């Protein structure tokens, strides 16, 4: 349960803040109908994400991996941003220095109009050349659902295109990592909807706190990420953020 004191406490911090950084995970999109990875509905054909979201899985069976991404692309195409996305989009226009670092690849923050989004794990709406042929851009946008053939072809070399996401075992793009690192110098760092188990994303909140940020965690599972938090608001992001926004408006 969130408490009125918790909501008021976060609102007080936000009122004084200039630099606000928000770290989001799959839970923020749950109310939009996008299944989380480790919650109910997260398994596809009994595969865990760690079994499909790897380069090894793709090289073994690119069609299977693409079928999973197609399933997610079709699902997300039918979803709309929820109240959590909306509140964060409003904050992105309000605070002089706002950054949203998301592990989500669904594009819902962008669709809500959020400014300054860092896509830590890429986007399911982007593709890249599996072979890295250099004859095409490193990443290109393609929202075709479904593709006429799987894997879809790379426009540069005709070989396999891959989803433009970061897979397990792959490094985060150094420029993305550097941008996210800069955002950790902030007054308030809000962490919403992540199980905080996948690194390096899971280490960002602790680093922000070491640098002096006030860290608040929003998650119905009160234990997720709590060790790095000054405040834990145990509830759904779409409800908690709505309450925080109401508290800010009532100030
Ligand atoms: P997870 O599925 O691991 O965790 C989702 C979190 O959201 C859980 O802690 C839930 O308790 C919480 N949650 C559920 N409903 C919520 C709601 N309405 N509001 C707020 N929180 C809610 O998803 P991530 O932490 O995002 O990586 O997963 C991290 C990474 O693992 C993903 O980016 C992906 C995945 O495999 C890659 O693909 C590389």
Question: Any overview of this molecule?
Answer:
This protein has 251 residues and is an alpha/beta fold. It has helices spanning 4-16, 27-30, 49-52, 55-60, 62-77, 83-94, 108-111, 174-183, 204-210, 237-249; strands spanning 19-24, 97-102, 117-119, 122-129, 140-141, 161-165, 188-192, 214-218, 231-233. α7 (108-111) links the parallel β2 and β3 (117-119). α1 (4-16) packs across α10 (237-249) and α6 (83-94) crosses α10 (237-249). The longest helix is centred in the N-terminal third of the chain and has 16 residues, at 62-77. The chain is elongated, with a radius of gyration of 18 Å. The two termini are 23 Å apart. The mean pLDDT is 95. The structure holds 2'-O-acetyl adenosine-5-diphosphoribose (OAD).
Write the layout of secondary structure elements.
Blueprint: H1 4-16, E1 19-24, H2 27-30, H3 49-52, H4 55-60, H5 62-77, H6 83-94, E2 97-102, H7 108-111, E3 117-119, E4 122-129, E5 140-141, E6 161-165, H8 174-183, E7 188-192, H9 204-210, E8 214-218, E9 231-233, H10 237-249
Parallel strand pairs: 1-2, 1-7, 2-3, 7-8, 8-9
Antiparallel strand pairs: 4-5, 4-6
Helix pairs in contact: 1-10, 6-10
The site of 2'-O-acetyl adenosine-5-diphosphoribose has 30 residues, from α2 and α10.
